[in-house]
Amino acid sequence: MVDSDLLTKLPQLHSKTNLSTIQSLTPLLHSISSLAKAQFPINSLPILSFLLPLLRSPSPPTDATTLTSTTTTLYNLSTQLDNSKSIISAGTVHLLLNLCFLQTKATEPGLATLANLALTEEGKRAIEEDSLVPEVLVAVMARDEEPKCQELAAYLLMVVARRSVEKRRRMVEVGVVEMLMEVGLIGRSRLVRERAIRMLGWLKDGRNGEMEEGDVKSCKREIRCMVKQSLDRNMESILRRGGGKKKKKNCSDLKLFVAD
């Protein structure tokens, strides 16, 4: 199908085909896009030109089959790093963040796609600069019924936190400290608990690997103050909610971040 130039004909179908037919083609595109995971060269532009208008439409698909096929297709394409530039330039980062917030069915493949894009400098910058970050990622972290999504959201928060003082400050303002404390204590996977505790350490100590000079020191002091106040305010209540074995297992790690 790829060799016969089927993909180049896809964008034309939007003007000639009804919505139900377009949606019925998404599982086919999902199957074709799996070639990218085997590093078979695929031109991602025709697929993006076909799928993104569907997701951006005033009435985007909400049925599980179409939504999963569409977002997983984007994920498959993102596994081939050569496709990253075209995916990012098409505005996919903002679209996926919005879908992750509004459609739980799209959250895991959406975040997995963003995690792949974050392997490139362009992807990191696009995620860092998006207006929905960090609010959407913090909101996803609150969904404790989705441990894989929590792990991916934590990873993306770590990427952003390492690069931007302003985003770190914004994370604290929207409640990331409380969320990290809760996840670090009673998160449903070991990986997400480890990532949460590591980020708490970054926020408390002001450590960062890629920050600019200038007013960084004052920003760090402000963040440390905000984190300390938040830790003091929330530690006791979260420990009460933790309970059981998970509390015994993790509270000693979290207490390290409360001490001066």
From TrEMBL:
Cross-referenced InterPro entries: ARM-like (IPR011989), ARM-type_fold (IPR016024), ARM_PUB (IPR058678)
Any one Pfam family match given in the protein's UniProt record, by short name: ARM_PUB
Ranges where the U-box domain occurs: 7-203
Residue ranges that the Swiss-Prot or TrEMBL entry lists as coiled coil: none
Gene3D superfamilies: Leucine-rich Repeat Variant
Name of the protein: U-box domain-containing protein 4
Gene behind the chain: PUB4
